[in-house]
Write a structure and sequence with these properties.
Elements: H1 20-32, H2 37-43, H3 47-50, E1 52-55, E2 58-61, H4 69-81, H5 84-92, E3 119-120, E4 123-124, H6 126-145, E5 158-162, H7 169-177, E6 187-191, H8 196-203, E7 211-216, H9 223-240, H10 246-249, E8 250-254, H11 257-263, E9 270-272, H12 289-295, H13 297-316, H14 323-337, E10 342-347, H15 355-367, E11 385-387, H16 399-404, E12 411-416, E13 424-425, E14 428-429, H17 430-447, H18 451-456, E15 475-480, H19 485-506, H20 517-531, H21 542-554
Parallel strand pairs: 5-6, 5-7, 7-8, 8-9, 10-11, 10-12, 12-15
Antiparallel strand pairs: 1-2, 2-15, 3-4, 13-14
Helix pairs in contact: 1-4, 4-14, 6-12, 7-12, 7-15, 12-13, 13-19, 14-19, 15-19
Bound molecules: 6-O-phosphono-beta-D-fructofuranose.
6-O-phosphono-beta-D-fructofuranose (F6P) binds near residues 165, 217, 218, 219 and 279.
Length: about 550
């Protein structure tokens, strides 16, 4: 591995909690903590129009947050004092800001237009990016046109992406998000879990003669993916008999040509990317091949254009009008000063069913860190727990706690003004019913219902406390016209940069993931202990030893 260079990323010069801006925010927090959004809105009738921002087709309303103009000013001071602008410049310039892995962080180069120049180690990487995109496009056209034939001469109609983490969550989320634009002749499946059930269920109704596997793995060493890829090859070859069939039914997406070759996939059928693309930032690299097959190269290009427009906004807009920056600072305000532990992502669009699962990896693998760039333990909260599911389903499950529970849960509501599937019911337009809930929920969360209001409704005194809504629950609302590839690209880039800004302020490395290593190493050690013919000597703790023994006794039934 390349030697880490821990001095390569611009680091915050003083400890975060010692900065003037942090101290000012602490004092300010004590003053405004009790302020209610009812008062903030009453004091400024223009607040709902003023605290808004538009970028790359997205409208952000951040007025329903527990902030004053002074809060925003101080948060922006914090961003400036912690060097967010310099860190942003360093990222876009290809500096090796992933210091523990000595890597540049250039997912933004994946959506740079042809002709742009992004230098890594003295080389412009944009032509390489477009060379891969062009090859992906040619391949996708062949499959979509039915001219890429399986080994027995049948066109491919089933595509199974095998990958995990960043090699799965992005493609599956984006495929579901853009299913409206997909070619319905093709069946797309995604296999990630090493649990054999997932693979078995994914292929049980597929014909191997018509099925293409995309083995997606940056490293091409990930246990889950390699196990599933091996089982896929066995499943294919059991039906197709000849090893030569692999060339027609398997393609790879990876940075590791050697391992791809060793697996038996011709590198002519490999789509590459680079070590300056982190796994969770890779969905618009060749890792997006399954999506491109589903929606076609033109729609894929629209997605990249959406990413790029948000990149440009993030790169050039002043901090106070910068959407990712504002969302990051608002999140940090609750995380660090109100001690909020989680953030709920609530998309009011069925197509975005996987969006919060995708953001879990993006955010939690990036900012789930406990030491600064220079290795000191932080004395403040870093990344929050990300969770959520699409509305309105969540309203009938967990919103009760958001409205009346004891925890502060900042929420992002995401909605669209036009449905891709307009439908009228006896109760009205489905989309109006859906969106009415977005506006109602954010209104209810912000303003609540006082005891006086409840009593005025004639509610019995003993019941009244149960019917009170404190309100003052913060929300952002993101509204776009309609869910297009462009909008989706812009939304993903928005969250990527939000995560970046928070990591920059927290002075952590948002681009490594050492926290997933220990479990992997221990599992590799335990696998042979589970499968050994004779009782192996076990040297774990007493709990792990006992669990392994019990499993061994029961595993054969
Ligand atoms: O979960 C750890 C991780 O390394 C992620 O960062 C990555 O997205 C995933 O595993 C899959 O890795 P690969 O693409 O190399 O198989």
């Amino acid at each position: 591995m390349t030697q880490p260079d821990l001095s390569a990323q611009p680091s915050t010069p003083v400890r975060l909690t010692e900065t003037a801006a942090w101290k000012a925010l602490e004092t300010h927090h004590a003053q405004v903590e009790g302020a209610h959004m009812r008062e903030l809105f009453a004091a400024d009738p223009t607040r709902g129009e003023r605290l808004t921002l538009e970028a790359a087709g997205l409208y952000l309303d951040y007025s329903k947050n527990r902030v004053t103009d002074e809060t925003m000013r101080l948060l922006l001071d914090l961003a400036r004092e912690t060097g967010v602008e310099a860190k942003r410049t360093a990222m876009f310039a290809g500096e090796k800001i992933n210091t523990t892995e000595a890597r540049a962080v250039l997912h933004t180069a994946l959506r740079a237009p042809k002709g742009a120049v992004v230098m890594v180690d003295g080389k412009n990487v944009v032509p390489d990016v477009h060379e891969v995109l062009d090859r992906m496009g040619e391949f996708a056209e062949q499959v979509r046109a039915g001219t890429w034939l399986g080994y027995t001469g049948k066109p491919i109609v089933n595509i199974v992406n095998i990958g995990i983490g960043g090699s799965d969550l992005g493609p599956v989320m984006a495929y579901r998000a853009l299913e409206f634009y997909s070619d319905r002749k093709l069946t797309l499946r995604f296999v990630s879990n090493v649990d054999g059930t997932e693979f078995t269920e994914a292929v049980h109704d597929l014909n191997p003669e018509e099925t293409l596997f995309i083995v997606s793995s940056k490293t091409f060493t990930t246990q889950e993916t390699m196990a599933n890829a091996g089982s896929a090859r066995q499943w294919s070859l059991t039906a197709l008999k000849e090893d030569a069939a692999v060339a027609r039914h398997f393609v790879a997406v990876s940075t590791n040509a050697q391992a791809v070759q060793a697996f038996g996939i011709d590198t002519a059928n490999m789509f590459g990317f680079w070590d300056w693309v982190g796994g969770r930032y890779s969905m618009d690299s060749a890792i997006g091949l399954s999506l491109m097959l589903a929606v076609g190269p033109d729609r894929y290009a629209e997605l990249l254009a959406g990413f790029h427009e948000m990149d440009e906004h993030f790169r050039t807009a002043p901090l106070e009008q910068n959407m990712p920056v504002l969302m990051a600072l608002l999140g940090l305000w609750y995380d660090d000063f109100f001690n909020a532990q989680t953030v709920a992502i609530l998309p009011y669009d069925h197509y975005l069913s996987q969006f919060s699962a995708y953001l879990q990896q993006l955010d939690m693998e990036s900012n789930g860190k406990h030491v600064t760039l220079s290795g000191e333990t932080v004395d403040y909260q870093t990344g929050p727990v990300i969770w959520g599911q699409p509305g309105t389903n969540g309203q009938h499950a967990f919103y009760q706690l958001i409205h009346q529970g004891t925890k502060l849960i900042p929420c992002d509501f995401i909605g669209f003004s036009r449905s891709l599937n307009p439908l009228t019911s006896a109760l009205g337009e489905h989309h109006d019913l859906l969106m009415a809930n977005v506006f109602a929920q954010t209104e209810a969360l912000a303003f609540g219902k006082t005891l006086e209001q409840v009593k005025a409704e004639g509610v019995a005194a003993e019941l009244a406390p149960h019917r009170v809504f404190e309100g003052n629950r913060p929300t952002n609302t993101l509204l776009a016209e309609t869910l297009t590839p462009h909008t989706l690209g812009a939304m993903i880039a928005l969250y990527e940069h939000k995560v970046f800004v928070q990591g920059a302020v927290w002075n952590i490395n948002s681009f490594d993931q050492w926290g997933v290593e220990l479990g992997k190493v221990l599992a590799a050690k335990i696998v042979p202990e589970l499968a050994a013919e004779t009782e192996p000597p076990l040297a774990h703790d007493s709990s792990t030893n006992a669990l392994i023994r019990r499993y061994r006794q029961q595993r054969r039934g």
